[in-house]
Amino acid sequence: MPDHPAIDIESVLKEDRKFPPAAEFSRRALIKSMAELEALSRRAAEDPEGFWKECAGELFWFKPFTKVLDWNFPWVKWFVGGELNASYNCIDRHLAGPRRNKAALIWEGEPGDSRILTYQMLASEVARCANGLRSLGVKAGDLVAIYMPMVPEAVIAMLACARIGATHSVVFGGFSADALRDRINDAEAKVCITADGGWRRGQIVELKRNVDEALKEAPSVHKCVVLKRCGNHVEMRAGRDVWWDELMDAQKAVCEPVSVDSEHPLYTLYTSGTTGKPKGVVHSTAGYLLHVLMTMKWVFDIKDEDIFWCTADIGWVTGHSYTVYGPLAAGATVVMYEGAPNAPANDRFWQIIEKYRVNIFYTAPTAIRTFIKWGDEWVHKHDLSSLRLLGTVGEPINPEAWMWYHKVIGREKCPIVDTWWQTETGAILISPVPGATPTKPGSATRPLPGIAADVVTREGTSVGPNQGGFLVIKRPWPGMLRTIFHDPDRYKKQYFEQIPGVYTTGDGARCDEDGYFWIMGRVDDVINVSGHRLGTMEVESALVSHPAVAEAAAVGRPDDLKGQALVCFVTLEGRRKGDDRLREELRNHVGKEIGAFARPDTIRFTDALPKTRSGKIMRRLLRQIAAGDQALGDTTTLEDLSVLARLREDEE
Ligand code: 7RM
Question: How far is CA 523 from CA 31, 116, 484, in A?
Answer without folding.
Answer: 34, 43, 21
